[in-house]
Amino acid sequence: MKVRDLPPGRLLSVDPQTLIAEVARQMQKDDSDSVAVISDGRLVGIVTERDLVRAIAEGMDPQQAKAEVLMTADPATVDADEDVTVVAVKMMRMGVRHLPVVDKAGKPVGLVSARNLVAMLDREAH
Fold it and tell me: What is the CATH number of the domain that holds 50?
């Protein structure tokens, strides 16, 4: 099975200048556990729930700090033609739960999450 066969993971996005507090509000509103950071149509980073927890623990002011300070820059990505088992192993080895999906031009088009992969494997097992 290929990434394209998974239920599409919606890719929530923000600008690098978006305040962390606004990033958290958007993630809560959209029930999302990650957000892509996009600049000029290009994926420049990703912010996850883990990043938000880290920011709070480190004392960052969410009303002052911006996404570009918190994000994981140049995150690993996958393309729609990759096999989901390869993607699952990649996620496990990297210790991540989210990987943006990019098209041939490198433009972000979706998101693969560990949750999506587990749900797909559960459906196939039953």
Answer: 3.10.580.10
Task: Find the helix or strand (DSSP H, E) in which 93 lies.
Answer: helix 84-94
Q: Smallest Cα–Cα separation from 92: which of 114, 121, 123, 67?
A: 114
Q: Residues near 66 by Cβ (< 8 Å), separated by ≥ 6?
A: 16, 17, 18, 19, 20
Q: What is the pLDDT of residues 66-111, one digit of tens each?
A: 999 999 999 999 998 999 889 999 999 999 998 999 888 888 888 8
- Domain total of the chain: 1
Q: Which domain holds residue 30?
A: 3-125
- What is the distance between the alpha carbons of residues 13 and 89, in angstroms, rounded to a whole number? 25
